[in-house]
From TrEMBL:
Keywords from the UniProt entry: 4Fe-4S, Iron, Iron-sulfur, Metal-binding, Oxidoreductase
Record-given protein name: Glucose-inhibited division protein A
Organism: Runella slithyformis (strain ATCC 29530 / DSM 19594 / LMG 11500 / NCIMB 11436 / LSU 4)
Classification via InterPro entries: FAD/NAD-bd_sf, HdrA-like, TAT_signal
Source taxonomy: Bacteria, Pseudomonadati, Bacteroidota, Cytophagia, Cytophagales
Domain of life where this protein originates: Bacteria
Length: 477
C-alpha cells in the first residue's frame, strides 16, 4: 500500500493512543520567537503508596530500605540504571567516615563477605568499628548487585531511568510528583516523600527555599570524573596507590606526589593538583585526577560540557602514561562513569540548618541522627588554586551531631531530605556530605517517613523519641 504523509501521521496517532504512552501530536503553538506554550494534558496516577523516595544514591537506597523495613510500602525512583549513585554511577571508589553503626556496617560486612572491599580496617566477624574509617575501597559492580538484592528482599519497588520533573502541593502539603521516562509522563502520590536526589531536585520543584555553593548560586566546589583503570601490575605502583602500606601497621602517604610527577613526565598537567589511585581488586584501580571548576550542578549544559572535557582529560592522562612504557605498559581505562561526580548541589532549607559554628564547637542535639567526624573538605574553587588541591579554611572540626530537624523541609509538609541536599551552610556541607554520613541520614529519613505515613502524621509532628527505636530496630549491621 502506498504510504503518504497523511496516512503516516494518522497511523502514528493511532499507535500513540493504543500504547497510552504518547499522545497524538498537537500543532505547535508558538507564542513568539522566545516562548512556546505546551498544551495542558491529563496524566493518570499510576500508584499511591506510603513513601516515595526520589534518587537512589547512598542516602536514597538506604532510606528506601529503612522505610520498607519499618513497615512502609516504598517506591524508589532513579534517573540512571543502577542503585548507589555516586558509589556506582559516578565510580567514587571509596568509603569515608564509615564507622557509623547500622547500614554502614551492614554494607561493609556484606561487601567483605563477597571479597569486594579493600582496606586495612575491614569488618571481622563479631567485631565493630571503633574509629573513623578512611579509604575503604570497594568493587562498584558488587555494590550494584548487593544494593539491588537488599531492595528486593524488603519489597522496595525500584524504577530506573526515571526522573522527577514536577511536584504539586495542596497548600503546604506535597501530594503528587510527576516523572518522565520511556513510559512518558506519569503521576505518583504518597503522604510522605524523601528527596535524595543529591541536588535537591524534588525540594526545588516543590517550592522550597535553597542555596547552592558559597553564595546563593555558587561559586561551587568542582566536579570530578573518576574512572576505573586497569594496570599491568599494581604492586609496581604501590607507592602511588592510596592506602598502600610500608608495613603491616604503617600506611604510606596517599601517593599523590609520586603520581603527579609521573603524569607530568607523560607531558600532561592535570586539572587536579592531588591525583589519586584507589585499589579495587587485583590490577583494577579507581582514579581521581580531574577537576571541573565553577560549574553549577543544576545547569545541564554546563555539566554536559564539563563531562566531555573531563573524559577527554582522563583519556589524555592515561594515554600519556601508556606511552611512557615500563610500569605503565598497557594501562587503560576500562570504564568511565554515567554521571560526573558532583560535590555541590542545592541545599534545601530545613527546620534546622547545620552551620560552621556547629562543627567548631562540636554541637550536640537531643534529636541527633548521626555524629560526624569528617573534616571540612573544600576542594579548590578556582583553576589557579588547583595545585593546593583544597581551599584552606583552617577549621578544626569537633565531632558534631546532625539533628533530625535538618532533614525535614521548612517550606513544604510531607517532605524530608537526606544526603547532600539536607539543610546546612557551605562549610558544614563540605564536612557532612561524605557517604558515611549520607547512609545514617537515609536511615533516619526512611524511618521518619515510614512512621509519618503509616500513622497519618506530618514528619515534623513525629517526635524523635518515636523514631529512634525504629532506627535501632531496622539496623541489621
Amino acid at each position: 500500500m502506498k504510504t503518504n504523509r497523511r496516512n503516516f501521521l494518522r497511523n502514528g496517532a493511532l499507535l500513540g493512543a493504543a500504547g497510552s504512552i504518547y499522545s497524538p501530536f498537537t500543532e505547535a503553538n508558538v507564542q513568539d520567537k522566545k516562548s512556546f506554550k505546551e498544551p495542558a494534558r491529563t496524566i493518570s496516577i499510576v500508584d499511591k503508596t506510603d513513601v516515595i523516595v526520589c534518587g537512589a544514591g547512598p542516602a536514597g537506597v538506604t532510606a528506601a530500605i529503612a522505610a520498607a523495613r519499618a513497615g512502609a510500602n516504598v517506591r524508589l525512583f532513579e534517573a540512571h540504571g543502577s542503585l548507589g549513585g555516586v558509589w556506582t554511577n559516578s565510580l567514587l571508589g571509596y568509603l569515608i567516615d564509615f564507622d557509623k553503626p547500622g547500614f554502614n556496617q551492614e554494607l561493609v560486612r556484606k561487601l567483605t563477605e563477597r571479597d569486594a572491599l579493600t582496606g586495612e580496617k575491614r569488618w571481622k566477624p563479631g567485631k565493630s568499628f571503633s574509629a573513623p574509617i578512611q579509604g575503604l575501597a570497594y568493587h562498584p559492580e558488587e555494590m550494584k548487585l548487593l544494593l539491588e538484592e537488599l531492595c528486593m528482599e524488603v519489597g522496595v519497588k525500584v524504577q530506573y531511568h526515571t526522573r522527577v520533573v514536577a511536584a504539586y502541593r495542596q497548600g503546604r502539603q506535597l501530594t503528587t510528583i510527576v516523572t518522565e521516562s520511556k513510559s512518558g509522563r506519569q503521576a505518583w502520590q504518597a503522604p510522605v516523600f524523601v528527596d535524595t536526589t543529591g541536588d535537591g531536585d524534588l525540594g526545588a520543584l516543590a517550592g522550597c527555599e535553597f542555596e547552592i555553593g558559597v553564595e546563593k548560586e555558587c561559586p561551587c566546589q568542582p566536579l570530578s570524573l573518576n574512572c576505573l583503570i586497569l594496570v599491568k601490575d599494581v604492586n609496581q605502583l604501590r607507592n602511588m596507590v592510596h592506602g598502600g602500606m610500608r608495613s603491616s601497621t604503617e600506611f604510606i602517604n596517599d601517593g599523590t606526589e609520586d603520581l603527579m610527577r609521573e603524569i607530568r613526565r607523560a607531558g600532561v598537567e592535570p586539572s587536579y593538583g592531588r591525583p589519586m589511585f584507589f585499589p579495587v581488586r587485583g590490577n583494577l584501580v579507581s582514579a581521581m585526577m580531574n577537576h571541573e571548576y565553577s560549574i553549577n550542578a543544576t545547569d545541564a549544559a554546563a555539566v554536559s560540557d564539563a563531562t566531555i572535557r573531563a573524559r577527554a582529560e582522563m583519556n589524555r592522562i592515561i594515554k600519556g602514561l601508556r606511552r611512557l612504557g615500563g610500569i605503565w605498559e598497557d594501562i587503560q581505562i576500562v570504564a568511565s562513569p554515567e554521571q560526573i561526580g558532583i560535590r555541590d548541589g542545592r541545599r534545601i532549607r530545613g527546620r534546622y540548618t547545620v552551620i560552621k559554628d556547629d562543627l567548631v564547637v562540636g554541637i550536640k542535639h537531643d534529636d541527633s541522627v548521626l555524629k560526624s567526624h569528617a573534616p571540612v573538605d573544600v576542594h579548590a574553587l578556582k583553576h589557579d588554586q588547583r595545585l593546593n588541591g583544597n581551599a584552606d579554611y583552617s577549621i578544626q572540626v569537633q565531632p558534631y551531631d546532625i539533628p533530625m530537624r535538618a532533614l525535614i523541609a521548612k517550606d513544604v509538609d510531607g517532605l524530608v531530605m537526606a544526603g547532600r541536599c539536607i539543610s546546612g551552610d557551605f562549610i558544614a556541607h563540605s564536612s557532612y556530605r561524605v557517604t558515611g554520613n549520607a547512609v545514617p541520614m537515609g536511615e533516619a529519613a526512611g524511618c521518619l517517613a515510614a512512621i509519618a505515613a503509616t500513622t497519618k502524621r506530618q514528619p515534623h509532628d513525629v517526635p524523635f523519641s518515636d523514631v529512634k527505636p525504629v532506627i535501632e530496630k531496622v539496623r541489621l549491621g
